[in-house]
What does this fold into?
Amino acid sequence: MLFIVTADQMRAVDEYTIQQLGIPAASLMENAGRAIAEEVIKLCREGQEDGRRDDRGWGEGDHADSDEARHRNIAEGGGGWPDRGQPKEAWRAHTGPGDRIGYGGDIIADPALVMAHPGDQHWYMLIGKGNNGGDGLVAARHLVEAGLGVTLVYADAPEALRGEAAVQRDAAAKLGIPAVVHGREAVDFSRCTGIVDALLGTGSRGAPRGAYAALIRAANDSGKPVVSADVPSGLDADTGEVYEPCIEARVTVCLALLKRGLVQYPGASAAGRIVVRAIGIPARLAPEHGPSVRLLTDEVLRGALRVDTGRRRAPDGHKGTYGHVLLAAGSMPMSGAGLLSAKAALRAGCGLATWALPAALLPHVIGTVPELMLAAAADGNSGEWNAASAAAVLRLAESRDVLATGPGLGRFEGDTDWLRRLWQQTDRPLVIDADALNMLADAGPDGPRIWGQRSAATILTPHPGEMGRLLRMSTPEVQRDRIGHAARYAREQGVTLVLKGARTVIATPSGEAYINTTGHAGMATGGAGDVLTGIIAGLLAQGLGAEQAAAFGVYLHGQAAERAALRRGDPSSLLAGDIIDAL
Ligand SMILES: NC(=O)C1=CN([C@@H]2O[C@H](COP(=O)(O)OP(=O)(O)OC[C@H]3O[C@@H](n4cnc5c(N)ncnc54)[C@H](O)[C@@H]3O)[C@@H](O)[C@H]2O)[C@@H](O)CC1
Ligand SMILES: Nc1ncnc2c1ncn2[C@@H]1O[C@H](COP(=O)(O)OP(=O)(O)O)[C@@H](O)[C@H]1O
Ligand SMILES: [K+]
It folds into this structure.
C-alpha cells in the first residue's frame, strides 16, 4: 500500500519504529543505503543493457519503458528484480568440471549488487550533514563492495556529521573510500558515470544554501544521471514545490513511504522515476501518525474503497437498477458542455440520464444524443438559465437519483441563491462543477458550512482556478500545496473535493485523500472536466458513495484518456469526446 506522508509524519513514524518497536536507527539507515546502492546498480545495468542493444543497432523504441511505467513513473520496489538487464553470467561462478547439470553447482553472489564490469563505473556521492548524508555513506560502502569506483563529496566539513551519519562517515574513512570536501578541493564531475544526491532529505528547510546549492547546480549542469536519496535535494517534501536550485533526478529512491512532494508537480518532474523501497518501517503506521493520503491504485480502489472495479452487472439488472442522473447544465453559448457531461454519465453506466436545460436551447440539441432525455427547466428566449428555474430543477430531481450541475451553466442574476436552494432542498447526491463552483465561491469562503451539511453525497470538482476562488487565493498559491489545500477544505467544509489537474487530489470530509496517477497532459482540452462531472454523476447513480464515485470516476476518466490517446497516436490531438468514446 503506497501511503503518502509529510516530513513530520515520516519523522513520527521513524520515531515510533525506533523507540516503540525497538528497531535500531542504524538498521534503518543500513537498509536505506543498501536500497540506494541497489538502485544505482540497477541503473548501471540498464545503461549497460542499452549500450549492448545500441551496439546491435536496436532503435530507441525497443527498450522504452512500458506505457504503464511511463504513465505512473512510480514503482513499489523492495521485492524481486526484473530479469531485464541482469547479466546472469556476472553472478554465476563455475565451480569446476565435476558439477553435474541438474545437481546444483551454481554459486550465486548477491544478485542485487552484482553487475558486469563494475570497474567501468565511477559514482560521486554528494553527502549532506544530516541522516540523508548518512544514507549516502551507507550506499557508498555497498557500491565499493560491489566493485564500483566511488568518491565522496562532503558538502560540509565531515566533522559536522552527527549520530548514525557520523558512524557511517568513520566506517567509510576506515575503508579508505576517497573523499573530498566542497570548498577545500575542486570537484569535477566530468569523468564520473553518475551522481548520488544524498545532500538533503526530509530535514531540508527552504532553498538549499551555500555548498548545498553549489553542488546541486554543478550536478545538474554535469548532465550525468543523478540518483536521489529519499527526495531530490531542493524539493519541498511536503508540497512538491521546487526551490532554486533543485536536483533534477533520473531516479529517486524514496525511503519507506512516499513523500507528498514527490507525487505533485513540479516535484514529480524533479524526481524522475520514483522507486519506493522498504527499509523496515511498517507502512501501516503512517495513518496512525497523520492524515491518510494514498496513491490511487486499483488495489486501493478494490480494497480500501471497496469499489468493484470490474463494474460487474447483475444478470437480471434493468435500467432502473443503475440509476437516473439529472444534469442541470448548458446554455446557448456552451451547450456542448452539457452534452459532454450527459453523454459521459451514460457511458459511465447509469441507467438513464435527463438533461435539464434552458427551453430555448432544447430544440437545438434534440437528437444529438438520442439516448438522452431532455427537460426544459429555464423559460425565456435567451437560452440562458435564470433564478426561477430552481423550482423546476428541484421538481425534476424528485424522480431522479443524482443531481449534477455546473458545466456550461453560465452565470445569471441570483445564481448563488439558485444553487443554495438546490443544495438545501434536494436530498439527492449533488455534483458541483464549473460555474456552479463560482456561484458557491460567491457565498463566501465558508459557503458549504454556512449552507449546512447535506445528508447526501456532495462532490465539488474544481480545477485550480476554481479552487482559488473557493479559497480566496491565487491559482499559483493553490498549486503550491494542492494536497494540503484540498484536504483542509474537504474536512472543514464537510464535502468530497476533487482538485483537478495533473495528479488530481480526491479529498474526503473525514480527512483522507487519494492521489490519482492516470491520465496525461493531452487532457488539457476544453470539455475534459465536463466529462469527469458526468462520469462521477453516473457512478453515484449506480449506488457508489461519494468517496468511491469521486475516486473511481477520476481514475476511469484518466484511464479512458490514456486509451483514447493511444488510439489517436498522439495525446495532443485528444478531444474531450474521445475520452467518452474510450470509456
Ligand atoms: N530514522 C530516521 O530518521 C531515518 C532517516 N533517514 C534519512 O534521513 C533523512 C532525514 O534526515 P535529517 O532529519 O537528518 O535531515 P536531512 O539529512 O534532510 O538534512 C538536515 C541537515 O541539513 C541542513 N539543512 C536543512 N535545510 C537546508 C538548506 N536549505 N540548505 C542547506 N542545509 C540545510 C540542516 O541544518 C541539517 O543539518 C531522510 O530524508 C532519510 O534520507 C533514513 O536514514 C532512514 C531512517
Ligand atoms: N496534465 C494533465 N494530466 C492529467 N490530467 C489532466 C492534465 N490536464 C488536465 N487534466 C484533467 O483534465 C480535466 C480538465 O478539466 P477542466 O480544467 O475542468 O476542463 P474543462 O473546464 O475544459 O472541462 C480534469 O479532469 C483534469 O484533471
Ligand atoms: K536527497
User: Anything to note?
Assistant: The domain at 4-287 is CATH 3.40.50.10260 (Rossmann fold). The chain has two domains: 4-287, 299-310+317-581. The mean pLDDT is 91.
